[in-house]
Amino acid sequence: MKFGVIVFPGSNCDRDIAMAVRDLLHQPTRMVWHEESDLSDLDVVIIPGGFSYGDYLRCGAIARFSPALQATVKHAEQGKFVLGVCNGFQVLTEAGLLPGALVRNRDLHFICDRVSLRVERTDLPWTQNYRKQQIITLPIAHGEGCYYADAQTLAELESNQQVLFRYCTPTGESIEAGNPNGSLHNIAGICNRQGNVLGMMPHPERAADPMLGSTDGIHLFTGLLALTEAIVA
Amino acid sequence: MSALAEAPFSLEEIASEGIKPDEYEEIFRRLGRHPNKAELGMFGVMWSEHCCYKNSRPLLKQFPTTGDRILVGPGENAGVVDMGDGLQLAFKIESHNHPSAVEPFQGAATGVGGILRDIFTMGARPIAILNSLRFGSLEEARTRRLVNGVVAGISHYGNCVGVPTVGGEVYFDPSYSGNPLVNAMALGLMETPEIVTSGAVGIGNPVLYVGSTTGRDGMGGASFASAELSDASMDDRPAVQVGDPFLEKALIEACLEAFKTGAVAAAQDMGAAGITCSTSEMAAKGGVGIELDLDKVPVRETGMVPYEYLLSESQERMLFVAHKGREQELIEIFERWGLHAVVAGTVIEEAIVRILFKGEIAAEIPATALADNTPIYHRELLQEPPEYARKAWEWQESALPGCTAAGIELAGKAHSWTEVLLALLDSPTIASKQWVYRQYDHQVQNNTVLLPGGADAAVIRLRPQLGEVASTKGVAATVDCNARYVYLHPYEGAKMAVAEAARNLSCVGAEPLAVTDNLNFGSPEKAIGYWQLAQACRGIADACRELATPVTGGNVSLYNETLDAEGKPQSIYPTPVIGMVGLVEDITQVCGQGWRSPGDAIYLLGSGNSNTTLGGSEYLAVLHQTIAGQPPIADLALERQVQSVCRQGIRQGWVKSAHDCAEGGLAIALAECCISGQLGAEIQLSAPDPEARWDHLLFAEGSARILVSVAAEQVETWESYMQSHLSASWQKLGEVGGTTLSLTVDNLTLISASLEEMGDRWSKAIERRL
């Protein structure tokens, strides 16, 4: 399975993601410069965390105009996989690949921490290596991670089961106490209706390397690989 | 007739450049003529303490600077140490105190930006940031504004630039009220085959200006940083630079890419004194000259005059010397990253800095006059310690009110020792700094082994960007200084700062390697200020020699004084911050400070209760509002033994947690291990001497003391190892378990505090006050 990691000026988690898929999972991986417009060789496009174009104006607002993102939209339309992490999630909402928006955290501060998440759905490749309702711990690091959408959008997200990850307490309750940034419905990660585009604020790549102690995030990537193995088989 | 009398400038104009009358005479002598306005400005910044260390240089000479692992010592943009396996680490600390006092957000942000440039200028990719912060009391509104601004500034810059902020220290004391200290340290892993140096080479080689544009921001920041702050300093806000971490991130990538082409012959970042400093230092170091045409420099505003170009401290700029004929390659790389890169000058044979503007010579100065052969002041050292110190040393523990095993009476109210413990945990200096580090991205780059708050030092994996992870090596880093000790006894206090830094590294299992120091002091022109500086330097030199941790560079920030409304100078505590790095051979063999499992045995390494004191302690300051006494004296021989035993215990896997006993003494260290591990402990201490005080037993501070916990099955091996390497300098204190810290002496319970109440005080102390 071939991975491409988009590099905008200001991306800063591009190498971290590449390390997870290239070095830990030994998948062919290439960095995609933001001016590139041909992504046809890729199976999975990843938009990494960071501050694309300095996040001036609004997080992710400028990135959506880049050639690489235009190509990503086409890639998604073909039903291929797109993952946006942190700033990548913000970019996906700005580009209209995912609904809603990410606004300033509830307490207006940047938050770097490890938080509990509940895996809401496991019938998609992204989450098939988790158990349903499994409580996992992933790192977060963002200033604008508060998920917002209007009531109708939220209702649709819920009824279509598009919420994949929800912030929760260590015992799995998605209540205010387990919500680090004020996200509506404790939303940490959502997919599009087809399920091939996933955006999430937590960083699975930061919980992937056993050398650093925490591996709850690696299963997201191995889930995708299991899919290709299934196809090949 | 003196030159000064005939100068084409008024005395005020000369003074406003930070130049003293004698220095003007010297400038006249060296040039053989009067300087013009631009040249006067150039001398002003280059002869400031910030750039030329004119007061501190004679003192810095005594530092040990060489060692087996030292690849680059003082004098370059950063020090470099050899970590083995082909891994080379660049590191350096720098202050941004005065800018942060005036404009905390940008002041702190650009402090981070500046220290990162020192690292990647060498060809190293920045991998970690630490910072050492000091503020006044949180009860003051102004302090709260500064804390919020400084933390937000560091967070903004560090997070965006994508370098994890992994550690640091924060102290609160009224002495920093108007003059906070913001010291930032950065670490980088060499990414180019050769270390990039700053001496200009190759007559005729092109000089490239790269990075951001030049504007009027930060004019004369170096001179501003070398004078006392006053009410009028608030009007100096233009002297504070404005940072853009997005540009810096692009600059990191572009510079590293450029260095790898081999087309760059030398590089220097434009920090303090901008174009002036980079041209003159590169020329002076290379023994050559540089001719630079200001008309080529990309600008962000119109109508600037040479004086403004030369003194601008606009951020995110660098100066390169390229190999002739290869400049276009470099320009293309920078333009791809959306940055400027222009040929703005040439390396010339004559050892002068010649600045052209609109076809004319705007300034022409011998390079060494600016950057090398600069004034030095050998000041008179007080023969006797000053009165404030002698008076403080007279203090004895007997001056404290009496106490019993039950507690102590303060201001007519009885306090149990448990209450005293909780009060200390609530002291912002001791309390959890989570409110601060939670705002810093401490995990980006995916190499953070130990998270902030969980261990005595930060540990980062050393992982080159290309290729598979080949090494298990890591680097540990810490910044330390108990400035109250230094104030009370500059020599001993400085030694303790070095000892504590090494101890913190040893507590995570790292072998201390080298030091970068940030000397934050008051005015050296005052007898007491110079005495503090001189004594502290001697202390650092002695301790670094003894602990085999050479100094590879650092930063000097003097004139940290504020003038109060009556114009009376108030000096900060002398604060020589020690940044230290250590080698972790195997990052899977490190340890944190929290207890790990019930039933583990708890030991105190070191000399126990002898050689400790309440003098200068946090207990004395917080509970008795007294800053007095002889601070603890570092026993460096014992320090070496204790640290070595601790490291060996961690490497062998015997030691499961290790924590240094620092501010608040034994009782606070125990509480911190409990809170961090979310486990209680049962501690039995032997009865002190009949004359000894209970508060001394609990809260006295001293050197070479480390608390460790060890699994029950390893106890025998561990004890016999300690016996053979520490003889009697260790004791068993008790056992991990339960949800309460209970401390007894001969069946008398001195402390009984639940995890919940300790954690509550400790974790909310700072946030509650903000």
Explain what the structure shows.
The complex is a heterodimer of chains A (233) and B (770). In chain A, 23% of the residues lie in helices and 24% in strands. The model of chain A has no long low-confidence stretch (mean pLDDT 94). Chain A contains five helices and eleven strands; from the N terminus they run βαββαβαββββαβββα. Chain A has 233 residues and is α/β, with parallel strands linked by helices. Chain A is globular, with a radius of gyration of 16 Å. Chain A has a single domain, classed as Rossmann fold (3-Layer(aba) Sandwich). In chain B, the strands form seven sheets. Chain B has a seven-stranded mixed beta sheet. Chain B has a seven-stranded mixed beta sheet with strand order 26-29-24-30-27-31-32, with helices on both faces. In chain B, strands 1-2-3-6-4-5 form a six-stranded mixed beta sheet. Chain B has 27 helices and 32 strands. Chain B has 770 residues and is of the alpha+beta class. In chain B, a hairpin with a 2-residue loop joins strand 31 and strand 32. Chain B starts with a helix and ends with a helix.
Counting helices, strands and paired strands, the structural category of chain A is: alpha/beta
Major sheet summary line of chain A: 9 strands, mixed
Alpha-beta content class of chain B: alpha+beta
For this structure, the quaternary state is heterodimer
Overall geometric form of chain A: globular
Instruction: Report the end-to-end length of chain A measured between terminal Cα atoms.
Output: 14 Å
Rg of chain B: 26 Å
Major β-sheet strand ordering of chain A: 2-1-3-4-11-10-9-6-7
Average pLDDT of chain B: 92
Query: What coarse outline of chain B follows from CA principal-axis ratios?
Result: globular
Largest interface, C-beta within 8 A: A-B, 32 and 35 residues
Q: Give the helix proportion of chain B (percent range).
A: 25-40%
In DSSP terms (H or I, runs of 4 or more residues), the helix count of chain B works out at 27
Radius of gyration of chain A: 16 Å
